[in-house]
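Obj.: predict assembly geometry.
Materials: sequence records (below).
Method: joint structure prediction, all chains together.
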Amino acid sequence: MAGLLKKSTGLVGLAVDSNPHESPKMSERMERKHLRILYTKLTAVLQNIPKDAAYRKYTEAMINERLNMVKTEPDVQKLENKINDGQIEEVILQAENELNLARKMAQWKPWEPLIEDPPSDQWKWPV
Amino acid sequence: MTRDAATCPAVRQQARCLESSTTETHPTIRPKDEVQQKQLCAFGEYVAEILPRYIQQVQVTCFNELEILIHPDGIIPVLTFLRDHTNAQFKSLADLTAVDVPTRQNRFEIVYNLLSLRFNSRIRVKTYADELTPLDSAVSVHQAANWYEREVWDMFGVFFANHPDLRRILTDYGFEGHPFRKDFPLSGFVEVRYDDEVKRVVAEPLELAQEFRKFDLNSPWETFPAYREAPEPLTIEAGDKKGDVK
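Observations (raw structure tokens):
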């Protein structure tokens, strides 16, 4: 795929993440660089969460796996197939979402035990 | 040319059905999808492990539908997690409704149905509320919740805090009451008519000419062709011994 610029993602509102003035090879590196930045930011945010929280364990495992894939695979098309989460722009968008979520999770602290038990008949069905 | 009723093909086919209805081989039951059930159970456990602060119960129905029952304080955290997390990605809010169960302490059960386009899977999130406690609005997480929450407010009376524009959506402008509550009668409390003296439509207390009648749901079409004739009742005539029944 080196040398071919992607014209559009095919999705409304999702622009192709590349700088058209630079050479195609440079644009491919931009997308991977973008992903790498996002994933490193994510690992930094996850450090604020206690180590035994399930969210941190699972997300860190997934992020490290993806970061390795981004570092080892230079070709964007093959990287998309490896990650298996849609186009690279969608992966970038999802990484941004996960970053926002991680910041909010650090505030909400959902790993703590249950706030309040429901009344005993609340979830009984049939009534 | 006369057509004999007995030789008409439709009657012959029905006769065949009547004869073969004696042995029932396989009742029609929906086949169980074990794989999907296991996947949903696993995902339910995953979510419960990540968010134990808000999740009170997780269940998978027999129709392979995953339901998460949460505390009302956890509406926004749980919905944001399900929308943004990479293993969930439930980007679409399919439905937002309420169920009224008057016998409970928190009579309203608010139901959110979410769809994940990436993984082609659905999930249901349920919370509870009573008549006076407000809930957090889901509009900050899913824009689609806007009108749905207006409808729940109008029909049930559940107030949503931080909603951009919470006003009535289906009832008439001066309407009082919340129609979908179980204690609101079917025909309502007011009826409207045009009054010629004041030259406008007026609302007056209800006066119906007839009481509400409920009909048994008899269908005009035959439902059980095999049982068209009533079975003959067994009779014992005077003079017959016990084992001697015709």
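Conclusions so far: Chain A has four helices and no strands.
To do: check interface contacts against the pulldown list.
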